[in-house]
Amino acid sequence: MKVCIAAFSCALFFSASSQAIELSGNITSELRYFPDAPVSFGASKFDRGSSLSFSFAPEIYHEWNGGERAIIFSPFLRWDESDSQRTHRDIRELNMLIVQGDWEWRLGLGRVFWGVAESQHLVDIINQTDSVENIDGEDKLGQPMIQASWSQDWGVLDLFVLPGFRERTFAGERGRLRSPLVVDTENPVYESKDEDRHVDYAIRWSHSLGVWDVGLSNFYGTSRTPELRQRGYKLIPHYNLINQTGIDLQATLDEWILKLESVYRIDQRKSGDKNYAALVGGFEYTFVGAFETDADVGWLVEYHYDDRQKDATSPFQNDLFTAVRIALNDVQSSELLAGAFVDLDQGGYSLRLEANRRIGDVWKLSLEYQGFNNIDPDDMLYAQRQEDYLQAELSWFF
Description:
By secondary structure, the chain is mainly β. Helices cover 4% and strands 54% of the residues. It is built from one helix and 22 strands. A hairpin with a 2-residue loop joins strand 10 (199-209) and strand 11.
């Protein structure tokens, strides 16, 4: 890693001798309030109440040769007053872009997003989830990669070589939004004899066909989602080798947007009984200029299915997500998303609200609420039943 950083620093220095370097990013203060004590093993009275945290996410970008060469560097640092595991640092991106004809290369540490659904990203598998950041799974760790993109009339073909594996982050003993037992991140178990040095591979074809945006992908390598197996009073993460094929579809039909993500995953263990299929699909309908105002109001409905049912490593095996999205389209870019996940088997549900609004030119206020209600003991979310929280963030952008 140090060699990689040094090489990129030299490249940045020499290429920047006559070119400008763009610096941007944000510093964010975060306050979370938990009204209830957790059910976690070892919980104490200090686990109830508020928790303060700060994050620093700068980005340095430099391009030359008319944009055919570029370097991006995006480190991330968080300090959390309660959870030592959430206090962490990462390099989200440190890569070089090389454009040559129809080919585009990215070398280094990067982040890649695949998917179209709002409530779950089934096909998104390149990067590991930084789960101490949020339970929505949208924060990702930087992944070592070589990415080659080939653009043709018939679509874009992306090829990935992924040397090195990033383990998922988990909350520590004093952390919140965790299972009753702490996950032992010091002793992960790998199916591959190469452990975290296993080289993964992925390929994706994407294209726009009329109103349809289509993506087909395949990934072979170490699963980003570990199986958590109990050993004593801890959970041990097991990372298996998998072969996952996925499809993502989106159709834009005026005010309607239709979405579908589906995967079929083959577990490489000889038993073969861990293979499964899963999907998330639905629609978003937007009332443009609702109530004769400048605001847009969207209605989202997405259905989740996983044929492993109770054996699923995801809580979404037969669930429905519905939400309302409001964009005021004002100068402060005020937005709100309020929705609920409903378990169609047991009847439990969780509520989620996200809202944000710019303040002036460089400040942004964000609010988030997550609540768990009537969760059945057989539901994976049962461990989170007392993890309701309210979060406020104030960010300064530069």
